[in-house]
Amino acid sequence: MSFNPYVRLERLKQIFPSDTSFQPEEEARAKDREADGEPDGVPDGEKDRDDLEDDDEDKDSDYHPVSSSDEERETFNSKNWEIIWSSTAYDRAVSCCSSTVDTAVSGLSPGPTMQAKYGAGDIASTFSLFITPMVEDIILENTNREGRRKYGDEWREMYEVDLLAYIGLLILAGVYRSRGEAAASLWHPENSRALFRATMPLKQFHTYSRLLRFDDRETRPRRRASDKLAAIREVWDLWVSQLPCLYNPGPEVTVDEQLVPFRGRCPFRQYMPSKPAKYGIKSWVACDSKSSYAWNMQVYTGKPDQEHPERGLGLRVVLDVTEGLHDCNVRCDNYFTSYKLAQQLLERNLTLVATVRRNKPWLPRGLLTVRGREALSSKFAFTPSATLVSYFPKKNKNVLLMSTLHTKADVSDRPDRKPVIILDYNRSKGGVDNLDKVVGTYSCRRMTARWPLVIFHNMIDVSSYNAFVIWRELYPDWMQRKLNKRRFFLEELGKALVSSFMEQRERIPRTEASIAVVKAVKAAASPRPAGPIASMEHPPAAAAPPEAAASAAGEEAPLRDNKRKRKRCYNCPRRNDTKTGNICCRCDNYICKGCSHIYCSSCMS
Asked: Is 82 found in the same domain as 45?
């Protein structure tokens, strides 16, 4: 950027019309600095121009400086000469976030909404608040259309019970950490869990995975011309619209990106080397910083047009995913941060605390220089609506943050002397990162080459976690002092979704353990209560597992596949140290494959 002293002088005269410290000799001094090769910022030795008196304090009724009339204020110009930063904080007579908040929003307390409270009758109904019957109808309609197109009259119609059983098996596979395991091993007659074979055959599971569709493929080319997400757009929009209706976020909301791993063909697949998966489908997420509840999501479909790339993507994303929020503080990283974003969020009664990149043109040069600065020092700059801090933790390290929430240059009394802005940001910056961690722990993702199915798997993962957050806050006494709450919740959810399908199953599976599971479920089948919950203090009891139901019915319990440990084989020599998880159904001793025999049900009897 070339230095133009005349433009600079005119801008300063417009900002300080009543100040007399700017004289025409500024032009000559500017030309001398340009000849010496100095940067076009404010020179360090030029104190007489920056030490200005605030003669026009009373011009703005909303803001007035903290200092007295005779106190001097040091000012910094931004690199683009559009913003004047001050070294002294402004006393905000009226808060940036207006005190008159919409009563429809301010009267709501953080947590589940009334719709969620009346709909969360049990674990399965809490999950159905997200995967609604409308979403299920769209999936069933398009899947049956695809099945009839491929198989003709031989296609057996897929109903709601079939779809819920398929989703339940996906959730159970994630609970048992079988994301990278082949589906054939989950249905293995010897080493698998009996619940999979008891629900549906492996061939039927593969058929549903291949034919699951979310739109009409005949009209997709026309819609895809203007929407890259056309293959799942209708289902995605219905699902996203439910997220903010079921939960009110707290005072702090985090905005960040989420990368769902995928290496197949996709028109908007992204490469992010900083992520563990590196390749995948990126989504923008706004979630509650405390509970990591996904409040709003948006799939990034890439550049809309190569000839006219989108400008201000970070600003547009934050404004989109925070639409409808009021009286909250938004936390985001330096990818999204801009001074314009902070001002537009203030108009929505939202504040911003975020990191800043050094190359932003609205930053003052005085905070970017680190030469001669003391380690663990902080420098602040202020405008009437924003606070900027530069923290110097060590050599060649400069941390920049901007906040419209903090109004003073507060520094903590810790040994590292971090500013309060940084401490507040670090406390709640990881909302989306924590969501990625908990979703990835028990993810239901399966190996597939179809990107719409990848998005659908992520919808199930996020829905199951959001349902767990609602269930945990509605029933805080549920499984107290237990560390595996979420695993137990997902396991009960998966069993509740597959139980209806097992009750209606006509063909009995072949293995003895699976037969026992199906008989136990049919014997313990009872009508589920419908409607809103009767009391919020006493949550409904979780459904008993099929193994417990079998014991209660007096039937022979199946092989204990679930929650079993691996121990040394009872018959093998001790020096072999043969570990196994199989248990004999009669003597309850651990037995390996080499020491056991396989019998059919008739020979066993």
From this structure: no
Spell out a b/e string for 34-65, using b for 16 or more CB atoms within 10 Å of the CB, else e: eeeeeebbbeeeeeebbebbbeeeeeeeebbb
Chain center to CA of 400 = 25
Tens digits of residue pLDDT in 472-512: 999 999 988 888 899 999 999 999 999 988 888 777 787 77
What 3-state class would DSSP assign to 554? Answer: coil
Count of other CB atoms within 10 angstroms of residue 409: 18
The whole-angstrom separation of Cα 391 and Cα 419 is: 7
Asked whether the beta carbons of 469 and 293 are under 8 A apart, the reply is yes
Buried b (16+ CB within 10 A) or exposed e, 410-421: bbeeeeeebbbb
In a domain? residue 59: no
What is the per-residue pLDDT across 171-212, written as a single tens digit (0 to 9) for each?
999 999 887 788 888 888 888 788 898 899 999 999 999 999
Residue 320 lies in a domain: no
Residues pairing with 294 in the sheet = 287
Q: How many domains does the chain have?
A: 4
Which helix (H) or strand (E) is 499 found in, with range?
A: helix 485-503
Angle, CA of 126, 127 and 131, to the nearest 5°: 130
Say yes or no: 393 and 481 in one domain.
no
**Pair 495, 592 in one domain:** no
φ, ψ dihedrals at 127, nearest 5°:
-70, -35
269 in Cβ contact with 279 (< 8 Å): yes
How far apart CA 93 and CA 294 sit, in angstroms, is: 35
379 and 451 housed in the same domain: no
Return the SS3 of 542: coil
Name 286's bridge partners.
Answer: 255, 296
Token couple for 269 = 């697949």
| pTM (two decimals) | 0.74
